[in-house]
Amino acid sequence: MKKIVILTGAGISAESGIKTFRDAGGLWEGHNIMDVASPIGWNKNKKLVLDFYNQRRKQLLKVSPNAAHKALVTLENHFDVQIITQNIDDLHERAGSTRIIHLHGELLKVRSTKNSNLIYPWKKNLNIGDVCEENTQLRPHIVWFGEEVPLLTTAIKPIKKADILLIIGSIS
User: Fold this and answer.
1) What are φ and ψ of residue 28, in 5° steps?
2) CA count, 13 A, side-chain hemisphere, 123
3) pLDDT in tens, 141-162
4) Catalytic positions, please?
5) What is the value of pTM for the model shown?
6) Domains of the chain by range and CATH?
């Protein structure tokens, strides 16, 4: 069976109504990236960062997978498909894809600020004072600018074994 690896970016979820970061009217136009998506921004103003991701989470919970997400599920019915996504949404999962690597984290999860192995599902607002079992503040389970991408090595393995590599909704 052919092995297909699909790398997806923001463009695949845009049709579902998820705002992208770089387009005109995109998320970065109203925010300095370093203020809302970096350890520097987190240390400077946790409330701003939490509010930013709370709004993204609310938006995500109102949208649905689109035809592109569903088409990848159909592809998975006929081939050995691995999705590697730069997106932090769960639209691939909701469409029915079963093998997804989230390079940049997941919006519907949070993690401890001290122990990155403590990860929890999260669909409500995240606030200052929300803590993990070790009593440390929770943060969005997102890879911020200036942080290493922990699943990069994991993602490289299926790419090396792929017969076909598709890139959808991402620019180089």
Assistant:
1) -75, -20
2) 4
3) 999 999 999 999 999 999 999 9
4) 104
5) 0.92
6) 3-168 (3.30.1600.10)
